[in-house]
Amino acid sequence: MKNRFMLYFHPLSFYSQKVVLALYEKEIPFKRHYVNLLAGQQNEPWFLEINPKGKIPALKDGDKVIVESDNIIDYLESTVQSVVTLVPDESFEVGQEVSRIRKLLNCVKVEIISYGIIMHEELSITGCKLPFYVQKTMKENYGARLGTMLKLAEKNPSFRDTYLSKSQQTAQRFEQIMDIEQVMQELEDLEDILDEMETLIMSSSEGSSDYDQELWLFGSRFTAADISLIVLLNRLVMLGIDSRYFSEDRRPYLLKYHKQQLERASVGRLLKEIETIRKTIPADKCHCEKNNFKPMELLLLVILQIQIYLKM
Ligand SMILES: N[C@@H](CCC(=O)N[C@@H](CS)C(=O)NCC(=O)O)C(=O)O
Fold first, then answer.
1. Where are the beta strands (DSSP E) in 195-283?
2. Mean pLDDT of successive 10-residue segments in the chain (312 residues)?
3. Among 119, 174, 267, 283, which residue has the fewest nearby CB atoms (within 10 Å)?
4. CA separation for the pair 181, 194 (Å, rounded)
5. Cβ 33 vs Cβ 57: under 8 Å
6. 42 lines ligand 1 (CB under 6 A)
7. Contact residues for 77 (Cβ-Cβ < 8 A; gap 6+)
8. CA 179 distance to own-chain centroid
9. Residue 69, ligand 1, Cβ within 6 A
């Protein structure tokens, strides 16, 4: 069991954090391979052999590769014996509800919100907590991604389709992220989702007579839906927008939930890992590409965007 799993991930990556928390909760040992997104390692041919979509996390179990954070969590649930159940059986009502909440939280456009805040700093209330050079690299890399993908497609023709499809996604996302109105709309849409979370936590606490008891989305039972919510709340804190969504006056149950999750051992381990990473990546190790397209790349950007519009 000790050497069974290899996780390709990065502690700062939102979707990786979900899987890491699940592994910690279930106390499943795993080998780690950090994929440095700032350096574009997710697009290197060796990683595309593992996940042709060029996304982390990816879990290797022997020769088998599992991708998509929720799929990985479900896979761990069904293949590893553990006393901890994160994904209750869907033949019970609680299992169906956990599944519904996981899907609902998956609808949050985390990439648009995160990059949107980094691109439009004025949307953050207390300021993004990511180190400045990380924000700077994220900003510059996003703008340069299209050019990078086109160069990679030329250099590694066997992955040409992957790079071209990623460059299409990038062009579309870039437009959304740069449009402050769209980013503000995503922030607004989050209000309804968090209202639902507040109601769930409130009803969870109404069913309990013990004030000090830990209460999660589904009572005292901690599930994969809590993992999805915890990672989201911590992302809001990192972006400096948490006070918009939860405080003593606004969604107090969510505030209590947020404080409680910080005390959880698995979360503590992950936050410590994030802190170590933040301290150890020196600025000069970050590979920054300037956002200056060559004329040919600009032309391709325009063509890709026209293709995207035509498909809509
Ligand atoms: N739906 C996927 C999303 C994975 C994802 O978007 N991962 C991000 C990091 S949080 C990534 O690898 N981005 C790199 C890229 O798109 O080039 C999941 O749940 O695992």
1. none
2. 89 97 98 94 97 97 98 98 96 97 98 96 96 88 86 94 91 94 98 98 80 86 98 98 97 96 97 87 47 53 57 50
3. 283
4. 20
5. no
6. yes
7. 85, 86, 87, 224
8. 21
9. yes
